[in-house]
Design brief:
By secondary structure, the protein is an alpha/beta fold. Helix content is about 25%, strand content about 35%. It has a single domain, classed as Rossmann fold.
């Protein structure tokens, strides 16, 4: 059974529908005390980092997510949900994250772009696999996924399982033991995204 964390930040139904397409049962869960019932947990998210952490804290979900991660069961953060896994973000100020992975969330640095590019980074782009991960089982070394974001994570390469080029190279997928994160949206990425979710289900 898969739980999808509902903290009023994001289109949870599209994530649930993607799991339905691969024949997996996923429940949208509002009660943090129920998280431990699930075999796997998904933390989606769209919006501002500070607002998201405020909601998680208000509902007591921050502690419940950390406890779930400690249990050793697979946890997947998607888009903003991936960013929340880190220690800190500089989106509209400075905000503490869940701290499950060492690193921080920073805006795209347009001064590093070799040519004018739009922010947010929006649309299809390639993810280049950096190291073996069960999340990418059966996928090629590079494949396209759908992105929508203005900030990205900076972390040690030991956590980076995927990188993407947009003006410069940035980390687009991470793993630390049982904790996974994807900057792109697998639920919007057709067959490649569904394959990633299927791999997550089969862990």
């Amino acid at each position: 059974m898969i739980g999808i964390v509902d903290y009023n930040m994001g289109n949870l139904r599209s994530v649930q529908n993607a799991f339905d397409k691969i024949g997996a049962k996923a429940v949208i869960e509002k009660k943090p005390e129920n998280f431990k019932r699930y075999d796997k947990l998904v933390l989606p998210g769209v919006g501002a980092f500070g607002d998201a952490m405020e909601h998680l804290s208000e509902y007591g979900m921050d502690k419940a997510i950390k406890e779930f991660a400690k249990s050793g069961k697979p946890l997947l953060g998607i888009c903003l949900g991936m960013q929340l896994l880190f220690e800190k973000s500089y989106e509209f100020g400075e905000h503490e994250g869940l701290g499950l992975i060492q690193g921080e969330v920073v805006p795209f640095d347009k001064s590093r772009f070799p040519k004018p590019l739009k922010v947010p980074h929006m649309g299809w782009n390639e993810l280049f696999v950096q190291k073996e991960s069960s999340l990418f089982e059966g996928l090629p070394q590079a494949f396209y996924l759908y992105f929508v974001h203005s900030f990205h994570v900076e972390c040690d390469d030991r956590f980076a399982i995927g990188k993407t080029l947009y003006g410069y190279e940035f980390v687009s997928a991470v793993q630390k033991e049982n904790v996974f994160g994807l900057q792109p949206h697998p639920e919007k990425s057709h067959d490649n995204g569904l394959k990633i979710l299927k791999n997550f289900v089969e862990m």
